[in-house]
Amino acid sequence: MRDSMRSVESRFNRRFGYPWVFLNDEPFDEDFKVGVMKMTRSEVFFAQIPKEHWSYPEWINQTYAADERQKMVNENVIYGGSESYRHMCRFNSGFFFKQKILESFDWYWRVEPGVELFCDIDYDVFHFMEANNKVYGFTIVLYEYLRTVETLWDATREFARLHPDYIHPENTIRFLVDDEKKGLQDGDWNLCHFWSNFEIGSLKFWRSQPYEDYFKFLDEKGGFFYERWGDAPVHSFAAALFLPQSAIHNFYDISYRHNPYQTCPQNRKLFHDNGKCECYPENSFDTDGYSCMPRWWKVDGNPHEL
User: Domain range holding 58?
Assistant: First the structure.
């Protein structure tokens, strides 16, 4: 985690001094606290996640859930047998923004262990989001593993039928469905989603009634435990359906690495010749066969061509 902090501090936060907030389902080790506090001049806050936000809800059949996990283990599905991974995905889908320690915050930047930035960020990303009416920011889009989300799309379509008023008229369903004519109810999800280990976004959006109702609906389906629904596709569906296209922002100028993928701005004059970035444009994940970025560019335009 300290390596991630070192990168974010060096590339961004030493200029702006935003506080760090650490959440954990268990009490933090004192050595960890001391270690991360040494990495920044900013305030650092620590909080323990309430048990009810990191445990099985009463309606989950844990025997059935265990059987389904074993099936995924047998099929070599990544994190297929992990209970903690499922609790984490459910927490990030429905509870992180409800933590008491975050009540006074309107914006967040999610930072995970082992990530790295390769470009200097010389502007305030939160002011940028607010000034430009942005709500959700991302860097990487890619395909989800179908085995882990087999019923998530159907559940989302069912929710949309129950709450058509929640679907924004300027939504980005066409990013999720290749056949634009079919739309949400008739089209098949192409498995594209925003990779949520990097998010810069509005906490107000996750606290909104449409998202609250959406998460509750999904949670009662049990897919976080019976399958392995991730917070990434859940967040992606919500952003694509409940927000206007203009509220979703691709931080193409932030070269971000989360193993095994990394992005890198393409414009050498703007980002490389001046020493702002230290990455190789030709190696950017944006043009990898597993990336959904070309699909996003069809929706929102390719910023590298500006």
Answer: 51-305
Is residue 43 among the annotated active site residues? no
Catalytic residue among 9, 116, 144, 199: 199
- Do 232 and 243 contact (CB within 8 A), yes or no? no
Collapsed DSSP state (helix, strand, coil) of residue 151: coil
Domain count, the chain: 1
Per-residue pLDDT of the chain (306 residues; tens, 9 = 90+): 999 999 999 999 999 999 999 999 999 999 999 999 999 999 999 999 999 999 999 999 999 999 999 999 999 999 999 999 999 999 999 999 999 999 999 999 999 999 999 999 999 999 999 999 999 999 999 999 999 999 999 999 999 999 999 999 999 999 999 987 888 999 999 999 999 999 999 999 999 999 999 999 999 999 999 999 999 999 999 999 999 999 999 999 999 999 999 999 999 999 999 999 999 999 999 999 999 999 999 999 888 764
**Is the preceding peptide bond at 50 cis, omega within 30 degrees of 0?**
no
Looking up residue 188, the CATH number of its domain turns out to be 3.90.550.10
Cis amide prior to 260 (ω within 30 degrees): yes
20 part of a folded domain: no
- What's the whole-model pTM score? 0.96
First-to-final CA distance of the chain: 35
DSSP 227-248: S---HHHHHHHHHHHHS-GGGE
Is 11 part of any domain?
Answer: no
